[in-house]
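Below sits our specimen:

——
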Amino acid sequence: MRVSVPWWWLVVSIAPLLGCSRTDLLPGSSGNGVTCGPGTYLMGQRCLPLPTGTGGQPGNGQGGAPGKGGATGAGGAHGVGGAKGTGGGPSFDAGPPHDAASDRFDVGPDLPPPRDAGPPAIGASVTFQIDPAHSGGQPMSTLHPPLTRRWSVTVATGQTLSYPLITTAAVYFTSSGGGSSKLYALSTSDGHTLWGPIDLGGNSFGSAADPAYDAGRVFVINGSGLASAFDAATGASAWTRSVGGDIFVGAPVAADGIVLLAPGGSLSALDENTGAVLYSGLYGGSPTSPAYTPTVAVLDYIEGSMTAFDPRTGKTVWHNQGCCSGGGGDTPVIYQGRIYSKDFWGTNTTLDLATGNPLGSFSAQALPAFENGLGFFLTGMTLEGHDLNGTIKWSFAGDGMLGSTPLAAGGVVYIGSRSGNLYAVDETTGHQLWVDNVGAPVATANETNGLAPITGMGASLDLLVVPANNTMIAYSN
């Protein structure tokens, strides 16, 4: 049965996630005329239970995660409240002092260490913006425009496609629409179906699902908060685990035996092999995808609020409390010891990865991409090439309708247009090398929309893959 939802219900439901006046995710919190009791927190107009450490769900008959190792639920949010005053400047309640030295996510008991995942996939595209740091760069790529369209695959009308994952053998992506989502695996050589599509479930409000790849497995989180692992070669289910929550946005990151998920204001670190919870925690906001390095990972919230933590243990490295709390932060980018934080509200900041100290600001309408010591920023509808000091080296306007998240591969920057044009630009000069029309707008990633997956391009050593509406297109030399 299809249920029609009035437009005002969507506004009421989404507004708390995007606003700056949230006291939700705090135990016993209240707001919006609702007061929550002990053991619960406020999400929009609903009181939801805090994690209780009961372990994973038994799965769906496909090999659920072991039941030990759930979060203990003792971790509170960092920095409470934070209303962005309507009549004057921002106002907030900074909450209790943040003790970064002692802070830690809730850790499940008696868990084995993550499996040895082996070396990273060299030249693969394994999450949103290529790598776990979301750098958007693939410097080892051998792609040299002009490119040739190798294949294209179109799914059902009305479906929205995620960014692709690309390995030597396969291209993986999700599609969402009509209250459910699916996972696809296509051959890199000709686009034929290797397995799937697999129905990932979801719900009528949050049907988005976003994927990640590591060590022979594809990891997905859907719109109901169910994380799943699949064998990349066969599509066989390895485990499923509910991480709880409400509306889910954000690309998962998988590396070094750990899957990091940051949906709806919470973080969960799962063992890649079993799905067991390694650590978890609640935050005051709606972070999207963590940016990951082997020693420091970063969660970005809103208006300067950010936490860096050790991805192996969950221990906080540093925390910056911004002016407000609430939803709206975008995925951070880590490149050469710097964090590039693009905020939903437009305050884009560069920070030192080791200390969290601000280094400067930048202008961009999409996440920047980095390669070979250069950064590529979509400013308005113009692509700019910068050095790491922020000096503009060149600009490229294309057809005046540039709008996608840029990607760099092998000395070339790729960017799409709202007209459907896909451009290849020399990353050192800004000169156009090639253009093709994909037949539909190449969209900017929307990380605050729980109704659709995050979209974006992907590049491997020898393949560029571009989603355009409900069609996935692969290019090669």
